[in-house]
Amino acid sequence: MFTANDFIPKKYTSDITKGNFEWSAPSNIALVKYWGKKDNQIPANPSVSFTLNNCKTITKLAFDKKDFSDNFTFDLLFEGKPKEDFKPKIQKFLERVFIYLPFLKDYHFTIDTQNTFPHSSGIASSASGMAALAMNFMSLEKVLNPEMTEEYFYQKASFLARLGSGSACRSVKGNVVVWGNQANIKGSSDLFGVEFPNAIHKNFNNYQDTILLVDKGEKQVSSTVGHDLMHNHPYAERRFAQAHENLDKLITVFENGNLDEFIKVVESEALTLHAMMMTSMPYFILMKPNTLQIINAIWKFRNETQIPVCFTLDAGANVHVLYPENVTEKVLQFIQDELVVFCQNGQYLCDKIGDGAIAL
Ligand code: PMV
């Protein structure tokens, strides 16, 4: 397994002056949540996510060798137009990863990025965005070091994405991705995401995720602040232990396809994440009244129909509705009939489990 030192390149054997790459990278939805971190984006507990398929960022990276300079230079375009307010985040990312990508000051970059989901939909683009950028930098490094193995390529891409935004490391490769060291998952690491190593039951093939857009406004509390509030949180240690236990339960669920057990773990994780927010100091609430309306309607529908549909939440008010492919028609009808009224402007996005980043 690679260590952080393995990602510091020794010497490049090849060169290139100019060119471009383009990658798409998807968003992901955590089933066991990452909430709380140590220095250098090391997670306080392991997490696991479904990679999404339709919600993604597409980023083109053009590079042009420049004269020696001690600065990073880059232009940033969002949907084809210069976007100055995204630049500080990218600048910070470049500073963080410079020791792992020492060529970054040798080129002028043009980063041209767009999302397939509506801007300001309340869906965070940091996971897909940082993953897409990391893939592009790895493509350039692969030209400079053609001997690089595929395993190194993907693990370092995930490692770099993590330094941009923690959950981004789960948006690189695989349908089901684990991030964080877990005793019972072979190859799992705090440094990067890895594909869940065992076979996954067919009940999860093409698993569906319909994202209900409840509130598209800016979050009042960023996830950076939220993670920080887990330091000295009264329930932190118990919560971190619980994440390990829940991941153990999902190992069994992925093997036997038990959807009742899946639902219990996933919904409990979502509510625990929000419980941690509500019990932080200062405390905060990211759910909205309509988030709770939707949760209650899902519970009622599931009770009445026995259809194994459940919800999860990320750090916001939107609701991810998760269900197996064979009940898609019935669940979409239910969403139309009973849940759309709780969505802002009736908006929702249909997604499903996907494979990860793609070179375009
Ligand atoms: O990657 P960050 O720092 O934006 O944190 C994301 C945390 C959650 O989305 C709430 C949970 C997760 O594991 O994705």
Summarize the structure in words.
- With 360 residues, the chain is α+β, with helices and mostly antiparallel strands.
- The protein folds into two domains: 4-198, Ribosomal Protein S5, domain 2 (2-Layer Sandwich); 207-352, Alpha-Beta Plaits, CATH 3.30.70.890.
- It is 34% helix and 23% strand.
- It contains eight helices and 14 strands.
- The protein has helices at residues 87-97, 126-144, 150-164, 223-228, 236-256, 259-278, 289-305, 328-339; strands at residues 18-32, 37-38, 42-43, 47-65, 73-78, 81-82, 107-115, 176-179, 193-195, 208-212, 310-313, 319-323, 348-352, 358-359.
- The strands form three sheets. Strands 1, 4, 5, 6, 7, 8, 9 and 14 form an eight-stranded mixed β-sheet that branches. Strands 11-12-10-13 form a four-stranded antiparallel β-sheet. The protein has a two-stranded antiparallel ribbon with strand order 2-3.
- α2 packs across α3.
- The radius of gyration is 20 Å and the shape is globular.
- The chain starts with 17 loop residues before the first strand and ends with a strand.
- The site of (3R)-3-hydroxy-3-methyl-5-(phosphonooxy)pentanoic acid has 15 residues, from α4.
Architecture of the largest domain, according to CATH?
Answer: 2-Layer Sandwich
Bin the strand percentage.
Answer: 15-25%
How many alpha or pi helices? 8
**Mean pLDDT, nearest integer?**
96
What kind of assembly state do the chains in view correspond to? single chain
Bound molecules: (3R)-3-hydroxy-3-methyl-5-(phosphonooxy)pentanoic acid
Radius of gyration: 20 Å
Number of strands: 14
Low-confidence stretches: none
Tertiary shape: globular
The structure class reads alpha+beta
CATH topology label of the largest domain: Ribosomal Protein S5, domain 2
